[in-house]
Every structure is written in structure tokens, then in C-alpha cells.
Amino acid sequence: MKTVMILGGSKGVGKEILKSCLNKGYNVAFCGRDQKLGNEIIKSLNAEDKLYFHKIDLNSIDGIESYYNETIKKFKKIDALVLYAGVTPVASLIDTEEEVYDQIFNVNLKAPYFLTKHVIKNMMENKTGSIIFFGSAHMDYGQEDRTPYALTKSTLYTLSNHIAHHYAKYGVRSNYLVMGWTHTEGELALRASEGISEEDLKNEASGIIPMGRMLSPYDPVPAVMHFISDDSAMTTGSIMRVTGGEYI
Predict the structure, then answer these.
(1) CA–CA separation, 202 and 183 (whole Å)
(2) Does 3.30.43.10 match the CATH number of domain 3-180+215-242?
(3) Measured between alpha carbons, how far is 97 from 99 in angstroms, rounded to an integer?
(4) Across residues 153-178, what is the average pLDDT?
(5) CA-wise closest residue to 59 among 117, 110, 116
């Protein structure tokens, strides 16, 4: 019986991963800022014994260790860590305010770094584990108005490779999933703040993405499930692109 820990998991792709893991019979720990939403997800899936929700604000790492400890307390071990949570505010190099910079780096880089610090110790003890980093096509240089976001995603790629190289001897695997432009609640909210409707967004994306449409929240899930499973037992240090052919 595997236990999967998700950084995020209450919305978007993270929620689809949670449901797929549950369908496999896995235990799942997930987190977010909304306790009511977390409780509703557990209740709606009728999975009180299989799910654990931890309320946390990823702008601070104060709750990271507690999230790890409570997951171990409930499920005893962690077989896979899915680092999904992230924010993508509009911020070019010349326009980035310190507050925005700190928010992006706290959520996208600092929180996953310190959660990985705790989880990898448990994986080393058990001589097995799979870590899946959620990356972005912004990882190489990114769009002009996503500078700090691009920096965090490229650094996560370095961290994934670092873990793959140095922790394989403990049975720990690490892989980087590049997720393309995806139709999530967060993306819709961001575009709405820019005055772009859902229909306009889809039309814009269809002209940019080679395969003709945005990703659905489910599209990246099969890749994640493969990395979690024993089918990928000898796969580490890899990069998989689920982007519809989009490169930035």
C-alpha cells in the first residue's frame, strides 16, 4: 500500500492526482489554505481513512514540518512526494516588486525544498521513494512577464537532478514533469484579472499550442501515476514534457 504526499492537492491538477491515487487504493496526504474545502473533498470521496488534509499557507515554511509529521503519524511512511503547488503572478524583471518576488519564491521553491528535506529522510530510511517535481515550459528562460516564476522552475529542475544523482544509492528517485498551459482554476482567475475571458483564453491557446488546445487538469495525471508506480523503478533524473508541443 503506497502513501502519496502532495504539496497542494485541493484544486486543479493536484486534485486529479489525488483522485487517481485514491482509485489505486493509495493513501494520500494533501494540503492547502482552506480547511473547509479539504474537509469537503474528503467527505465527498468518502475516504476518511485514506485521506489526510493539512491546513497550511505556503508563503511561510512554519507549517511544513508539521505537515510531514502528521502525515507520518497517520500513514507511517511516504512512498511518493508530488510537488505540485505553485503561483504564477505576472512579473517582468524590470517590474517585479519584492513582495511578489518573495511570494513566488516562498511558494514555488522554498516550500518544496524544505518539505523534500523532511520527506527524503523517510525515503532514505525505507530505501525507496519517488519524488515528482512539477515544472514548466518557462524553465529555460520563460516569457518576459514571468521572470521570477521561470527562475523557480529552472531551480527545481536543478534540485530534481541533484536528488537523482546523489540519492539514488538510497533507492530514491526524482523526476521533473514539464506541465504545459493548463485549464485550471488558478489560470482562469489570473486571466480574468487581466480581462481575458475563458473563451478568449482557449482561442488564444489554440493558436499557440501545436496540438491545438490547452491541457485539461487530467492530462498530466497519467505521467505522474507512472512516476509513482513501480513501473518507473529505474527511472530517475528524467524530464517529461506534457505540453501539447509547446516550448517557451
Answers:
(1) 8
(2) no
(3) 5
(4) 98
(5) 110
pLDDT for 159 = 98
Where b means 16+ CB within 10 Å and e means fewer, 127-138 reads ebbbbbbbbbbb
Cell of 149: 516564476
Q: Which three cell numbers stand for residue 29?
A: 496526504
* Encoded amino acid at 33, one letter: R
Quick: pLDDT tens for 74-91.
Answer: 999 999 999 999 998 989
Burial class for 74, CB neighbours closer than 10 Å (0-12, 13-18, 19+): middle
pTM, two decimals, is 0.93
Predicted pLDDT of residue 247:
86
Amino acid identity of residue 166, one-letter, is H
Residue 112 sits at φ, ψ, to 5 deg, of -65, -35
Res 188 pLDDT > 80 = no
Q: Cα–Cα distance between 144 and 11 in angstroms, integer?
A: 27
Q: What is the Cα–Cα distance from 79 to 77, expressed in whole angstroms?
A: 7
The answer on pLDDT for 202 being more than 90 is: no
Q: Where do the DSSP E strands lie in the chain?
A: 3-9, 27-32, 51-55, 80-83, 129-136, 172-179, 239-242
Q: Provide the 8-state DSSP code for 157.
A: H
- Domain ranges (residues) in the chain: 3-180+215-242
Average pLDDT over residues 116-139: 97
Confidence of residue 163 (pLDDT cuts 50, 70, 90): very high
